[in-house]
């Protein structure tokens, strides 16, 4: 693997010749849509194959996976063009391995709405650890506002990606509601009903964790919000799930504004298994 910083006069083709890789490999690995306009200073990932395989008659991803004792998912990760076009052609070149082994593992989470284009989602899934699906709201009586998440959950499992449920204060009209959030934080009986419904749905649909995304929490509800997170974490942990919390990107603990004042970084970090700083 190499990192190439584009210099004036560089082209995808000249860079490909320099490293002995195909131009298409550079385009796909770096998501380059316009190869005619490489800006100077752009850093490009250059993956250099060490083991290649030429597809023979009757060759399939399954047979190649068995031949080289590597998972089919790895073949897709090594050959992004196969993700949405899994049918192999005789004479096609497949990357089995690259020059450098992976040095460490990372956890990668992606967010998607139910209406995401399938081809875009499939291109991302082989590289994701978690897929968070946006998102469930709740009614004043504790019922969950449904979404069409089952197609995304099925695709996630197809690529060995773990689906994560998302709960927010989104109302029936699709907007965040500080009033709806406050109602939940201040009402223990409502919290119990909502969590009963969440846990039942997580078990039914195969979710592995819960993402809590309350973006408009009033300062008067700050303490109650922490109490809600404590309660939610205890219910989730008791049944083997994790709690992930989304946070507004504060620059100081005293930052004013509706997005920030109720988010106590230290306490939320203590309660949650993981957190996300939103952009």
Automatic annotation (TrEMBL):
Residues annotated as domain GH18: 106-279
Lineage: superkingdom: Bacteria
Record Pfam families: LysM
SUPFAM superfamilies (UniProt xref): (Trans)glycosidases (SSF51445), LysM domain (SSF54106)
SMART domains: LysM
InterPro entries: GH, Glyco_hydro18_cat, LysM, LysM_dom_sf
All residue ranges annotated as the LysM domain in the record: 2-46, 51-96
CDD domains named among the record's database cross-references: LysM
Protein name as it appears in the record: LysM peptidoglycan-binding domain-containing protein
